[in-house]
Structure prediction request, 392 residues.
Amino acid sequence: MSNSPESQDPEDLRITRFDLPGISRVKPGQPVPYGHVLYGAATVGCAPATIVSRLTALGYDDIELPGGPLPLTADRDDVLLLRTEEYSPRWHGLGDPVSLRHILAAAGRHGRSPADVARRVTALGYAVPAGHALPETPDSRDIMLIRGSGRGSGDWLDWGGEAPVHHVLEVAGTLLCSPHAVAKRMVALGLRLPYVPEPDDDRILKHREGDATGHCWLGRYSEAPVGHLLAVARDTGRSPADIVARLKELRPGGQRDLPDTANVDDLCVLSERLDGRQPWLEGSHVGVQLRHILRASLVTGRSPAEVTERLAALGHPPHENAKVPEVADAEDIRLLEALDRSFMDNVHLEHVLRCASRTGRSPADVASRLTALGYRLPDEVDYPEVCGALRR
Prediction:
């Protein structure tokens, strides 16, 4: 065997040249990464110390080695854990502790648990910060939990780092999974959160049934429907104020406070179908629909004024232009169902005629009643008294 870095001996070539994407051969005069030593041992099937001796004999005098003793053996799959996940892959150096990002990326890439990867990396001579227990179960999504943003930009959370409160919701939205599951896994990875995950958190954050896109969780800025919060309070036995306080801990978006006590009809009037179930009324700049108030009045037996007052206390007042009648009338409800205008819109001739056709009332009657309910009819029109034909 020739003692030259240019040796063409097959064994020498095996420990200086590796067929690995992004990992080039060791050239004479260049430092030899420790990962190269371990991979050479795994490739040839000998002890790492043997590789060091042979590289020294070949003239390589700058070999990176750990401060402690070399491992007796090196397995090829274990050594691949030491490759970095950068645009230009390289061996992880001994100078810095192995980052949490590296551990989780390697674990996900090889289907191993974070704890297993950390133990093996430590056994191979690399430094892993002490005092950070890791999960024994593998999860390829772990790397997503420490990413600075959904697009991969920004800083990565490292050992013992604190995640901002909105981070949990953003990760859960990206992975289409439970925010509570994300929070618990982050804690298991040794990360710190501004709050301690609780079993009721998912119930508070899940404000509708999920669909194929998984959009069932409250977002970072979206306000929770009041009906949802009252339903959670009822189902968990906690007070509405407690539920709101917990929601404010779970996400940074604003949330209105709720009345101290719940009314027996609250869930009914807050539900779109008036059945006490989701979907719940959402906040709107045009206010709660007048036909909803009148329907709620008929269902609960309360006057329209009482329903309006309670909805306003719950954060759902009608538009300021709305004129709530003293008595709920089914004909008014039918008329409002036929109208596709809000109190912010002007009602013109074509809208009046369409309502007359759909309800069988005369245009004059429709115009008069809409005006009485607070709608604006700015056109100077002499509406006929003749009833329109019902549309089939």
Notes: The chain has 18 helices and no strands.
